[in-house]
Predict the structure.
Amino acid sequence: MTLAMTSAYLDWNATTPLRPAAREAMVAAMDLSLGSPLNPSSVHATGREAKKRLERARQTVADGLGCAAADIVFTSGATEANSLALLGHPWSRVLVSAVEHDSVLAQRADAELIPVDGNGVVDLGGLAALLVDAPSPTLVSVMAVNNETGVVQPLADISAIVRDAGAVLHVDGAQAVGKMPFDLASTGADFASFSAHKLGGPAGVGALYANPAIPLESRLKGGGQEKGRRAGTENFIGIAGFAAALEDALSHRDWLVVVRGQRDRIEAEARRIGGNGLIVGGAGADRLPTTTSLAIPGLAAETQVMRLDLEGVQVSAGSACSSGKVKQSHVLAAMGHPHPGDAIRVSLGWETTADDVHRFLAAWSRMATGRFQGGRF
């Protein structure tokens, strides 16, 4: 019996199951490698074949994102892509929103925080004030969609402010692609990061869109791959899976209508039980239908995650990128959330079922009812 058969998996923002199309592309790439070892950097016949297939995958990714293939840099994931954007150019100043993923916040100790409102939306006036007389070059980094709350940032407005100040914009798009209309032209981004395993591809593969007018120095030394922007032999098999997953994700988005109903059902039932005591993070902002942040005041997120797990329901407390540790959410703290350590993240995907939602609600209701009524668990 598989884990999927015994548990309700509601942690899709952490990682997603591999799409069949991605698996097929990866198996085909592996089968090809069995006959002739493929290294895209080799100049002989098999190397040229690998290079041709790599560039075909690059074109597929570029088409899906709305950019030129030459502007895609393949990386090991969004974390490396974020690092390359923030550290690969001699920025005079770096501004990052207070609700960014840790893989952005941890890159620059000198980064200044852009304030957000109570829903986690970037304070546009605050951003504009920070950019007055900004030295050149200044980089602004804002995620497209928050991984903990699902809040969508107003990238068009942010981009206009950044442009007017003569600054450069980086967007972490890891949680956006395949879940909302997204193309690089509409974001106004000069750099944008992506991760394959957030949209049904394999873990360990990602990409950075890089404005060709802004030079990047590779953070990894020792090779001239990716036009000198990222050293190391490309993960040919993983990249094949990434391209296939992205193409499939953009072609099949009907599930978002179903997921919206599932998310709304979860929140409606939670509000019925919790009343004014329940806190839904970012509820007053534009959000993706895939994510909800629920806080039971006085009940630690770690406790909730463990109790739900014991009942066969898998959720998380914020980001899943902290070596298995549960800590207070910096995202909710930046929003002024009164209980940033008491919120769990429930995230849904294309294989989420009505039974998954029912199992979560049954388990969460048993746990929450006692807290809201002042009882014991």
